[in-house]
Amino acid sequence: MSRSAHPAGPRHADVLPEGHYSAPPSDLNALDPKVWSETVTRNEDGVLTVGGIDVKRLAEEFGTPAYFLDEDDFRARARAWRTAFGEDADVFYAGKAFLSRAVVRWLDEEGLNLDVCSGGELATALSAGMPAERIAFHGNNKSTGEIRRAVEAGVGRIVLDSFQEIVRVAHIAQELGMRQRVQIRITVGVEAHTHEFIATAHEDQKFGIPLAGGQAAEAVRRALRLDGIELIGIHSHIGSQIFDMSGFEVAAHRVVGLLREIRDEHGVELPEIDLGGGLGIAYTSDDDPREPHEIAKALTEIVTRECEAARLRTPRISVEPGRAIVGPTAFTLYEVGTVKPLDGLRTYVSVDGGMSDNIRTALYDAEYSVSLVSRSSDAEPVLCRVVGKHCESGDIVVKDAFLPGDLAPGDLLAVPATGAYCRSMASNYNHVLRPPVVAVRGGEARVIVRRETEEDLLRLDVG
Ligand SMILES: *Cc1c(COP(=O)(O)O)cnc(C)c1O
């Protein structure tokens, strides 16, 4: 039977891909520092604490489900990226991973720039006081309204994604009597996922202008002719959750090849190159992400070497980490509602959230870890699947996890590494209310995005 033909949909339990679980961990109470944020520990009562506050208190005060974000950890990661790349490079935080006004202020204070890819993200950034010249505007189909607002606001760069957009942005800027700094996003035929990458001549996807067939060179030709825009560089983003730097190596080689062509044809050396984001984080103990300083060193060396070989001045490099900054800084706290052992299979543990607060498991077969955090337990490990409360059998938060055999309703579970692409992709499916994001730091917790209410839902439903 084909997967997609299953009446319950491709994610029905009996056609799920094989799990990747290995043997149960030796100590279920241990918290692997790789997957938990910096200030997370267990106190003497066995309760997990973050920023000096225990999760039982947090659950009481803020309810569950909720995302708890370790502010010191966020700032430390942002600073580590900034420091690693130094003064000759720029770090743009990819706002789509998670954006709120508090986050914008932290980024501003830590000296990072910001990528946005919609009018909503731009509005959030501007309303929190991010200087427009430190904002880059992305997207494969920006509306003319969005482009106009970005140009008027004075964003530092717009990343052009198509031939139509080259003309569109140039026209709008000219109408406004402005000259907009732009980069052109190209696709270099490198597809990178986690531990592998594929280098091809073509890339079959919606983003960017293909290097193949001279399309990128033609885009540059057109951009250089238009008065409304100033072409400052070439942009390439090759994938997500990447651990292996060799994909960047091939991408940089191809981007620098284009820079050389541009110099030879137009006598212009473009001053910037953006290598995108996509650096991986640890979702489970099996993942081994690189440190920002290793990534900075590797990327800088690759670009410098390629430029020397092409006899080009080394352009200013920029990178766009999203997940690698915010991903590890937050966990989702859930309360267990039901525990359902299925003989010979596994135990289904239902929590009070699910695919509405974390769609990544259903969408990408993403793997997560999970721990009992309201107490420690010496009970035997049991193979579990942590599922949500939605009307979908694919509503899975953690596909395979070992949890203590005495797990019971009312226990609190936490899923680490949910800072990126969880709240930002959250939905109202089943009219479930989206959870709050609570920042915790130095013994204090404050809501930075409040919990949705039924009034919020009904306000949109005008009857
Ligand atoms: C999504 C995206 C990023 C960020 O990706 P991460 O995996 O979160 O680092 C950066 N740049 C562009 C253009 C993107 O689309």
SSE layout and pairings?
Blueprint: E1 41-42, E2 48-50, E3 53-54, H1 55-62, E4 66-70, H2 71-85, E5 89-94, H3 101-110, E6 113-116, H4 119-127, E7 135-137, H5 144-153, E8 157-160, H6 163-175, E9 180-187, E10 190-194, E11 196-199, E12 209-210, H7 215-225, E13 229-235, E14 239-242, H8 246-266, E15 272-274, H9 292-310, E16 316-319, H10 323-326, E17 330-342, E18 346-351, H11 360-364, E19 371-372, E20 381-387, E21 396-404, E22 412-416, E23 437-441, E24 444-449, H12 454-460
Helix pairs in contact: 2-9, 5-6, 7-8, 8-9
Commentary on this structure:
Belongs to the Orn/Lys/Arg decarboxylase class-II family. LysA subfamily. The active site is at 391 (proton donor). It catalyses: meso-2,6-diaminopimelate + H(+) = L-lysine + CO2. Keywords: Amino-acid biosynthesis, Decarboxylase, Lyase, Lysine biosynthesis, Pyridoxal phosphate. The chain is of the alpha/beta class and 463 residues long. It folds into 2 domains: 41-70 and 328-452, Lyase, Ornithine Decarboxylase, Chain A, domain 1, CATH 2.40.37.10; 71-327, Alpha-Beta Barrel (TIM Barrel), CATH 3.20.20. Helices cover 29% and strands 26% of the residues. It is built from 12 helices and 24 strands. The chain has helices at 55-62, 71-85, 101-110, 119-127, 144-153, 163-175, 215-225, 246-266, 292-310, 323-326, 360-364, 454-460; strands at 41-42, 48-50, 53-54, 66-70, 89-94, 113-116, 135-137, 157-160, 180-187, 190-194, 196-199, 209-210, 229-235, 239-242, 272-274, 316-319, 330-342, 346-351, 371-372, 381-387, 396-404, 412-416, 437-441, 444-449. The strands form 4 sheets. Strands 4, 17, 18, 19, 20, 21, 22, 23 and 24 form a 9-stranded mixed β-sheet that branches. The chain starts with 40 loop residues before the first strand and ends with a helix. Bound molecules: pyridoxal-5'-phosphate. Pyridoxal-5'-phosphate binds next to helix 10. Residues 94, 96-97, 115, 138, 237, 240, 276-279, 320-324, 420 line the site of pyridoxal-5'-phosphate.
